[in-house]
Design a protein that fits this description.
By secondary structure, this protein is mainly α. It has 20 helices and no strands. Among the domains are: 73 residues, no CATH class; 184 residues, no CATH class. Keywords: Membrane, Transmembrane, Transmembrane helix.
Length: 419
């Protein structure tokens, strides 16, 4: 029963589509350009509203989900756009920032005492210990200001190893916990910022939401791959209702050997043939695309074509689950396929930071092994440094509260600056 209902619904939509084909006079991009020209010419609100209505009507007839240019050009919320992954990434970055500040502050304090107490136990260093520790702090602050987190993680990992010589395990656990938090924040922040600033990610989000992308974004996303960029531009033309690109698609089909590119080209040619009413040609093109590579969108397009040809052998039930998550199927029109560029790899961001921490740990262990120290020895001048007694007695509270206080001040300052 369900198969029959699905078949009849798609069949009715398809026939409705053919009756509406007379409305396909201008493509969507031409209508958007007209709206832009009328706005620049300060045309009346009646003309502008008519332009907007034409665009919305055209959108309903095309494989397009949203037209955000309407909001941008008119300054009004005509299209209620859903939030995207990029908006989520920005919110996550706001949560990461306080954690990064807290872990940085805690690590700087503990690294200072770790380096100070370790090297003051090396008697031959004498008063050079103070010089060394001050230089270490200046280097750390410089790296923080310059946001050189690879070197920071290296220094923190190295100095953290010195805590093992004091056998104060609560400090060891807390320090390396902070190091893990900082590492996660830095890697997460770096990865999310790359995604936010990546044309490939922006293109992917745009196509998934709207089912088309502007040419400039296509060129940025597919930089170095001119044929893929050209295919994607032509696909967008089809999404906008411009069906005069078949000749260019056929020329590209002769040049490509990649199966993914072939499927997109054959599917696009099939969409154009369908829209021109050449159903048998469309069926052959969709069938050829499926022989090249299975794709749910192509299967749906072939099903739609065979339904329009009154082919009663179509198995709607078998296809129902495959097309459930395909956008635009409610419109009952064939859907162009999009190519997607390579996205930012999380591993490419993680690996250098992981290597930096491992190298820091190795250097710290080598220093522990080859520099002889006098365990339990504390110089009187060093004991005058604030916080040393708490560090010697392994009192955790000051080292937990002080970074929290600094992070709260930083957050408050940020709120005041933004208000």
């Amino acid at each position: 029963m369900r198969r029959g209902v699905l078949f009849l619904v798609l069949l009715l939509i398809t026939f409705n589509f053919f009756f509406l084909r007379s409305a396909f006079s201008s493509s969507l991009d031409e209508l958007v350009y007209k709206l832009e020209r009328d706005l620049k010419a300060n045309k009346s609100s009646v003309v502008i509203n008519e332009d907007v209505s034409c665009i919305l009507k055209k959108k309903g007839e095309l494989p397009v989900i949203y037209v955000p240019e309407l909001n941008y050009l008119t300054g009004r919320e005509i299209e209620k756009l859903p939030s995207t992954e990029l908006s989520l990434f920005v919110r996550i970055l706001k949560v990461i920032q306080p954690l990064k500040v807290y872990s940085l502050c805690g690590l700087v304090i503990l690294a200072f005492f770790s380096v100070l107490f370790f090297f003051q136990q090396v008697k031959k260093f004498g008063y050079w210990v103070q010089v060394f520790v001050v230089a270490f702090l200046l280097l750390v602050f410089f790296l923080i200001l310059e946001e050189k987190f690879l070197l920071l993680l290296f220094l923190f990992a190295c100095s953290g190893v010195f805590l093992f010589s004091f056998k104060k395990w609560n400090f060891v656990y807390f320090y390396f916990g902070l190091l893990a938090v900082l590492g996660c924040c830095v890697v997460g922040e770096g990865f999310l910022e790359r995604l936010i600033n990546s044309p490939a990610e922006e293109f992917t989000v745009k196509v998934d939401r709207d089912w088309y992308a502007p040419d400039y974004l296509v060129e940025e996303a597919f930089g170095g791959f001119p044929i893929r960029a050209e295919i994607e531009k032509l696909t967008n033309r089809i999404s906008w209702g411009n069906y005069t690109v078949a000749f260019r698609l056929r020329n590209l089909l002769k040049k490509v050997s990649n199966s993914e590119e072939k499927v997109v080209l054959l599917n696009d040619l099939g969409v154009i043939s369908f829209m021109e009413g050449k159903l048998e040609k469309a069926r052959k093109l969709f069938s050829e695309a499926l022989r090249e590579k299975r794709a749910s969108i192509v299967e749906y397009n072939l099903f739609l074509t065979r339904s329009a040809m009154l082919d009663t052998s179509v198995n709607a039930g078998r296809l129902a689950d495959k097309i459930r998550n395909i956008p635009l199927i409610a419109k009952g029109i064939p859907i162009p396929m999009h190519l997607y560029p390579s996205r930012v790899s999380f591993f490419s961001v993680l690996l250098p930071h992981l290597i930096s921490v491992v190298l820091g740990l190795i250097l710290g262990m080598l220093i522990l092994k080859f520099i002889p120290i006098n365990y339990g020895y504390f110089r009187e001048d060093i004991l005058k440094v604030p916080g040393t007694v708490s560090f010697i007695n392994a009192e955790m509270k000051p080292f937990v509260v002080l970074p929290l206080f600094v992070a709260a001040l930083n957050l408050l300052f940020g709120v005041l600056m933004c208000s």
